[in-house]
Amino acid sequence: MNEEIWIDIKTKRDVRLFLWREGNNAAIENYRQSKGIKAFNQNHIYGEDSFLAAQAINEAFYILYNESDALLSYVYNFKKAKEALLPSKEFSWFKRCNDACYFAWLFVRGLSNRNKYLVNTTNPQDLIVHFRTSYYYLVKNHYPDSHRERIECIEDFFDRFPYDLSVKLSIMSDIRDEWNKHSHLINKLPFKKMIKTK
Predict the structure, then answer these.
(1) 63, 83, 103 — which closes off a domain?
(2) Do 189 and 92 fall into the same domain?
(3) pLDDT tens, 54-90?
(4) How far apart are CA 156 and CA 13, in angstroms?
(5) Looking at the structure, do residues 99 and 154 belong to the same domain, yes or no?
(6) What percentage of the chain has pLDDT greater than the value 70?
(7) Last residue of some domain: 83, 102, 124?
(8) Which residues, in sequence order, are CB contacts of 33 under 8 Å at separation 6+?
(9) What are the distances in angstroms from CA 151 to CA 19, 89, 98, 106, 193?
(10) Structural domain count, the chain
(11) For residues 19 and 160, what is the distance between their CA atoms, to the nearest angstrom?
């Protein structure tokens, strides 16, 4: 394989993004069905080790596309997608706090112009919460069971959200501001601890 033509996958987050974008690509299907000699196998693509996943994905795309313009376009397009990723530090404010994470998840879950009254509650015109939002189409796990799964869902939402970095930073800033405005009320909510950690 040519090291200069390389799909730049380094983290689990990168692997999830790439598989969301290209998981049904002919290169991956060909790799799964190929009986030829390979350095890696399909299990590496979906495994927990992001280094092995990157190696297997690159091998799969190299086998099918070799050094063609198509392979170069996958490399370029993924590089552009990674440029729009929020930095990891943008997620740190809610990673250590279950309540903040749950709040951020609910916010992105309901993010829609049709649900804008959820943030501005001065005069709600429509008391129906719409759930067919961008989140519904961008994230497979609609109801994460744990803190860790909610973090992954929030990361996936922002990674897959089809806007540039400045818009994503603005949305994250809005979520953090809303949390800061309402977090002092958290102890007054009638939730049991078990419901929030579910």
Answers:
(1) 83
(2) yes
(3) 999 999 999 999 888 999 999 999 999 999 999 999 9
(4) 8
(5) yes
(6) 79
(7) 83
(8) none
(9) 18, 13, 10, 12, 18
(10) 2
(11) 11
Residue 2 lies in a domain: no
Kindly state the tokens that stand for 169: 């930073």
* 3-state helix/strand/coil string of the chain: CCCCCCCCCCCHHHHHHHHHHHCCCHHHHHHHHCCCCCCCCHHHHHCCCHHHHHHHHHHHHHHHHCCCHHHHHHHHHHHHHHHCCCCHHHHHHHHCCHHHHHHHHHHHHHCCHHHHHHCCCCCCCCCCCCCCCHHHHHCCCCCCCCHHHHHHHHHHHHHHCCCCHHHHHHHHHHHHHHHHHHHHHHHHCCCCHHHHHC
Pair of tokens at residue 176: 């953090």
* 171 and 177 Cβ atoms separated by less than 8 Å: no
pTM of the entire predicted model:
0.80
Q: Any idea which residue has 């090291």 for tokens?
A: 3
d(Cα 30, Cα 66) in Å, to the nearest integer? Answer: 13
CB 93 within 8 A of CB 178: no
What are 14-56's pLDDT values in tens digits? 999 999 999 999 999 999 888 888 899 889 999 999 999 999 9
Domain that holds residue 52: 12-83
Q: CA distances (Å), 98 to each of 53, 62, 84, in order?
A: 30, 42, 26
